[in-house]
Design a protein that fits this description.
It is a single chain. The chain is of the alpha+beta class. It has one domain: Peptidase S8 propeptide/proteinase inhibitor I9 (Alpha-Beta Plaits). It has 6 helices and 4 strands, in the order αβαααββαβα. β2 and β3 form a beta hairpin. The chain is globular, with a radius of gyration of 20 Å. The N and C termini lie close together (7 Å).
């Protein structure tokens, strides 16, 4: 039990004392445009799952230069459509890292666009350590 407490304390201190990490990758998803929304409405019911899948495929296409320019302006750095995800969202990479304050401001600026469903920082997830999930008797 003492080992578990020591390890937990070390991990806690690392998390608390860790410096703020700069962000340069974000995940953004746009709402369906008018034509896509009309398509979904027309296929409501029987073909709804198929229609949603078709829209996701369309939304996986490259972002328009206009959208990239809006993101670049909001970030104060060049934005790049790095990768499309199967959900229709996109990983955006910026040409420079944003600090915590700049990250919050960038996200607020982008959220003002009514066509944006959501935007979030792309954070790397890690599996839980077996040391933290196992119990010692």
């Amino acid at each position: 039990m003492k080992t578990f407490v020591k390890i937990s304390l070390i991990i806690f201190m690392c998390c608390v004392c860790a410096p703020a990490i700069a962000a340069s990758r974000f995940i953004i998803k746009y709402k369906p445009n008018e034509a896509q929304a009309a398509f979904l409405l027309a296929h409501r019911g029987i073909d709804e799952k198929w229609a949603k899948a078709q829209i996701r495929v369309q939304m996986m296409g490259n972002l328009s230069q206009e959208k990239i320019d809006v993101l670049s302006k909001a970030a104060g750095a060049q934005a790049k459509d790095f990768q499309a995800l199967c959900t229709g969202s996109h990983v955006i990479m910026l040409s420079k890292d944003l600090d915590e304050k700049q990250t919050r401001q960038f996200i607020r600026n982008v959220q003002q666009d009514n066509s944006v469903e959501y935007i979030e920082e792309d954070k790397i997830g890690h599996a839980a350590s077996p040391l933290l999930t196992s119990s010692e008797n």
